[in-house]
Amino acid sequence: MTGMNHIAILPILIPMVAAIANLFMGDQRSKRMIGLNIGFGMLLVLVSALLVVVLAQSGTTAAAVYPLGNWPIPFGIVLVADRLAAMMVLTTSILALAALTYASARWHSRGPNFFPLFHALVMGLNGAFLTGDLFNLFVFFELLLAASYGLALHGGGRNRVRSAMHYIVINLVASFLFLIGVALIYGTTGTLNMADIARAVPLIRPEDRGLFEAGAGVLGIAFLIKAGAWPLHFWLPNTYSAAAPPVSALFAVMTKVGFYAILRLWTLVFANGSGSEMVFGQSALFVIGIATIAYGSIGALSCKALDRLASYLILVSAGTLLLAVAYNAPGVTTGALYYLVVATFAAGALFLLKDVIDQVLPAEAQILAVSLELYGDEEEAIDEDQEVSRTIPAAATILSWCFAVAALVMAGLPPLSGFIAKFAMISAALNAENAPTTATWWLTGAFIVSGLFVLVSMVRNGINIFWTSLPDGGLRLRALEIGPIVALLALCVLMAAAAGPAMTYFAETAAFIHAPLGYAETVLPAGAAS
Amino acid sequence: MELTLAIAIGVLSASGVYLILRPRTFQVIIGLSLVSYAVNLFILAMGRLRTDAAPFLSGADANIADYTDPVPQALVLTAIVIGFAMTALFLVVLLAARGLSGSDHVDGRGD
Fold first, then answer.
1. For the whole prediction, is pTM greater than 0.95?
2. Which one of B12, B68, B89 would you mutate to disrupt binding with A, by most A Cβ within 10 Å of its Cβ?
């Protein structure tokens, strides 16, 4: 077990070393550096996969606990890699490797210091997932935000700077709310260690209880801003669609950090109690989840550009995840974790796909497609022969297949993984104790109707891109660019094929995080958790 | 002392929030700074206010009543450093936006 505990810090150390190496090793645009960066990305994926495999093979309550500087828990900062953290780290690492590979074809040279910022963002993400300390979570949040500010600006241009400025202001305000929440929780529980907070919550003096709940509420708002929840999400579509495509692809996992923090603290602090604050929090999250799904779905219908559509799909998936947390049942959480992984991969692939399509399709063709939709196609009859005789080149086939797979996953249609995820959540909600309640029907309805909205908007975009405006000549794709997209979508397909083992892992994860004080008993030294 | 601190936090955060909601980028950055001061004072207050007390206990006759909590002070230090760095970064973006759009409006509009 001691060897395993040391793995917990590697997903933070590897990107840190990579970022520093990039700063000191001269020309970041040389072929050697690109190889080195992809190597670091692969190493990170291997280590994260190792962490997941080791945890999956240990007992269901196993977690790698790494006290930084070996200070005794709960006084020092501790890193905790339980199953939830490990799967989040693996998801991030895979997405990061794909985005990094994609970026090394062209995008890394559009501005200075792309690779160091990219690795710093990955380091912040992994740190936020792994830390077991509330203030350390704040520090990792700031680290990932600082890197993301730089990346959102990567490539420059008026549009990017304007939307990045909105993004920075919103996130700075969110950081202050985060600090206020942390301070209130520290003031009432006297500790910052998450496991210790879970232990201390029942012991809070009744007169301090209100202050503690206010702190948890303020903290929740900070996380909801990061998660892109309605009505705190207005920064998201602009920032995500304005950022450089590989950056947007990695940003797809950033809203999931907010979701992760909510899930972790919610299950640690509130879910085991049954007070008025629990009912309030649950219903608030439920309404916010439904509203986010509704806003994202309607927004998706209004989109003419694929990157903007992908941003709204991220809102839909954020709402879906929040709704699942609010439902507060292990079975629904199981499906939500599965959904999180596939939705992240598919959204990341969509952002990259949009960029590839932009390259191979002339801009006029895309504008034409949009105006055709508005004004009708007067030359349709004349062009018909030409359309039929044209052979579709292999590149266009690959692109359209990628698009189709992403659409199926995002809309949740069988046979792919998006369907399995939604089916798992709805089935668990319907089969829970004293189900079906009104909440169950709201959840089921929201998932199914949003699937229809997403499907309609994806199909309409697909028709505009692939049926009306492909140029006659062969399309040229770079292997470095199409490779990561195919790999991400192949993983979505693989998740559907290996749904059994994956679901077992997620079910054990959900059972662990929903178990009363399970996390606290794993992290705190023996005897202290009682 | 509690009253003084509470008024200080209140005034700082009220003026900070007002300025953040203004349309000019310079007002926003001053507002963010004021709010960050308010938050730092608030964190300090969460460690309970106490004068003439050291943040450590020493000796056999140490009395817990003469002790002040060192953790919020460490937290404030971290928060100040991070807030400072973020403000500096925002300043750069602000200047870039001013240069690109020719306006200091947060939406880049020229009015």
1. no
2. B89
